[in-house]
Amino acid sequence: MISRIKRFPRRYRALVLLLLVILTYLLLGSEMLRYLGMWTLILFLLFPEMMSHKIPADKTKDMLGLLSREEDRLRVGMEQVAISIVRKVAIDEYDNRYGIISFPYTNKISASYYFPIEQLPAVCAWFKENAPELEIVR
Predict the structure, then answer these.
(1) CB 24 within 8 A of CB 36
(2) CA-to-CA distance for 24 and 45, rounded, in angstroms?
(3) I need a surface site. Which of 2, 53, 89, 98 has the fewest CB within 10 A?
(4) What are the DSSP calls for 27-96, one per residue?
(5) Which helix (H) or strand (E) holds 119?
(6) Beta partners for residue 52, in sequence order
(7) What residues have CB less than 8 Å from 47, skipping those under 6 apart?
């Protein structure tokens, strides 16, 4: 049912919501405010994308700006960890617009980052040049 609702453009769903509010106000007057829970449910039914994030991790415009190596430590954003602990890094395409980088084999760097797909070759090259001991997995 939700996939059927998502097929309709947002403006049509907003129009349906507005018509429901007007109709309810005409029938019940200010008593319609007693049914605030119902209106919340209707909002989530008409706009199911409000409940999910399109991109579930940190999104950055410049992934290379977040990466640095200081001696035997790798810094990704605000997190820093010894390279001997990391060992593997996962770099791949997320979709046709974003690439993803994550560190699934360590719990020291918890964040995954999404970055523009155009930077994917540069990020792979950065790891090969600056941290050749890390294995790049997909």
Answers:
(1) no
(2) 17
(3) 53
(4) HHGGGGGGGHHHHHHHHHHH-GGGGS-SS-SEE-S-HHHHEEEETTEEEETTEEEEHHHH-EEEEEE-SS
(5) none
(6) none
(7) 10, 13
* Cβ contacts of 84 within 8 Å, gap of 6 or more: 72
Do 43 and 50 meet the contact criterion of CB atoms below 8 Å apart? Answer: yes
Region for 105 from its dihedrals, namely left if φ exceeds 0, alpha if ψ lies in -120 to 50, beta otherwise: alpha
Domain ranges of the chain: 2-51, 58-137
Check pLDDT > 70 for residue 4: yes
| Residue among 113, 97, 108 nearest 65 (CA) | 113
What is the Cα–Cα distance from 75 to 131, expressed in whole angstroms? 11
Digit-coded pLDDT (tens) for 45-83: 888 777 665 555 688 899 999 999 998 899 988 889 988
The rounded distance, in Å, linking the Cα atoms of 3 and 26 is 31
CA distance 50 to 88: 35
Burial category of 22 from C-beta neighbours within 10 Å (exposed 0-12, middle 13-18, buried 19 and up): exposed
For 90-104, the pLDDT digits (tens) are: 999 988 889 999 988
